[in-house]
Amino acid sequence: xxxxxxxxxxxxxxxxxxxxxxxxxxxxxxxxxxxxxxxxxxxxxxxxxxxxxxxxxxxxxxxxxxxxxxxxxxxxxxxxxxxxxxxxxxxxxxxxxxxxxxxxxxxxxxxxxxxxxxxxxxxxxxxxxxxxxxxxxxxxxxxxxxxxxxxxxxxxxxxxxxxxxxxxxxxxxxxxxxxxxxxxxxxxxxxxxxxxxxxxxxxxxxxxxxxxxxxxxxxxxxxxxxxxxxxxxxxxxxxxxxxxxxxxxxxxxxxxxxxxxxxxxxxxxxxxxxxxxxxxxxxxxxxxxxxxxxxxxxxxxxxxxxxxxxxxxxxxxxxxxxxxxxxxxxxxxxxxxxxxx
Length: 341
What we know:
- The protein has about 350 residues and is α/β, with parallel strands linked by helices.
- The chain is about 35% helix and about 15% strand.
- The protein folds into two domains: about 10-155 and about 325-340, Rossmann fold; about 175-325, Rossmann fold (3-Layer(aba) Sandwich), CATH 3.40.50.
- It is built from nine helices and twelve strands.
- Helix 1 (about 20-35) links the parallel strand 1 and strand 2 (about 40-45).
- Helix 4 (about 190-195) crosses helix 7 (about 295-305) and helix 6 packs across helix 8 (about 305-325).
- The radius of gyration is 21 Å and the shape is globular.
- The relative contact order is 0.12.
């Protein structure tokens, strides 16, 4: 391995499979934020099939100025150089036993045989390992029998994601759901919750109604926002809502929840996985028992019936996001980590 002179300017190389997932966005945002802090970076994008057919993709070499290599834990060993320090980030532990029931048979086989093989090599080759939450770090430490994984949270630009100065008063209590309409994220619970809430509440959700297996399963107080492709549109949706409804069953760390908090939304979510790292019960939202529709309904009604509590939660949520999930705080942690090596 090349010995890094402490006087050498930091240079971070990101060899990254372009998978169209949140890990892609993480890499882009990290590289951009590091550049703003004076750190030179380069992302080398590999085609999606490099994930599962790596031998069909040409090996890449780090730039001559690179001092560190930062990779996703799924990257195949073919693309991991041996001459520089390696930082590995885990975004979600797909081997978490709590995730098993939400996987197809094909996913179970792929994760157990292929992804675990790739991650075992990456973790062994790593100089430092990070995870996006303490929960994800602990799961990986347990499953791979490794220690000292550093938790560095995802972050938001708190100058962009902000609470509305003059929030409009909604005639009905307006809930928002942002995320994929998957079983892992608890989207199947949304119609059940909204049916019990009734006509004085409405939910706007990202994605299309066909994900709920037919419009007959969707109550009249649920409305699709379709696919939101523009950040300004997403921010407006946060700012015009009264709370984020997020009945997820497992999260590495939810960027949507952090964005919503920064925009001043109380979060009504599950008391599980990494969500308690974002939401403080009674201060920035409510943590409900997983899959307990009645508890979600009761928490939403409580928030709607107590305007003063809702107002204080909005203030607390915005402060929490700025203090704990700001770009400057998390990027400083990454730069300190690079400099430790």
